[in-house]
Amino acid sequence: LNSVCTQSCAVFVFPGPVQFENESELLRVGRNIPIGTMVFVMNTESLYLRVSQGFRSIQVGSTGSLQDIQQ
After folding, report:
1. How many other C-beta atoms lie within 10 A of the C-beta of residue 26?
2. Phi, psi for 30 (deg, rounded to 5)
3. Where is 20: in which H helix or E strand?
4. How far apart are alpha carbons 53 and 2 in whole angstroms?
5. How far apart are CA 67 and CA 41, in angstroms?
């Protein structure tokens, strides 16, 4: 939480990766997500990492079926 926060601020604990339906939901609670948390946005299938200055996009490789991965 930032230094402007007072005792009335809610503290959220996210034990692992978090998913949001869309980026609007992410932006609404983004400052309360701890640094180092991985976030998945479902409608864009985008992956982000929470960093001190906001969120950093994570680029992943090509996608394939589970059968492709097992080979």
Report:
1. 20
2. -55, -40
3. strand 18-20
4. 11
5. 25
Tokens 């864009």 belong to which residue? Answer: 44
Average pLDDT over residues 29-54: 92
Which CB contacts under 8 angstroms, 24+ apart, belong to 20-27?
26/55
> What length does the chain have?
71
Residue with tokens 């946005």: 41
Q: Predicted confidence band at 5 (pLDDT cuts at 50, 70, 90)? A: very low
Residue 67 has pLDDT above 90, yes or no: no
Q: How far apart are CA 15 and CA 21, in angstroms?
A: 19
Sheet holding 54-58, edge to edge: 18-20, 38-41, 46-51, 54-58
- Residue type, position 65, single letter: S
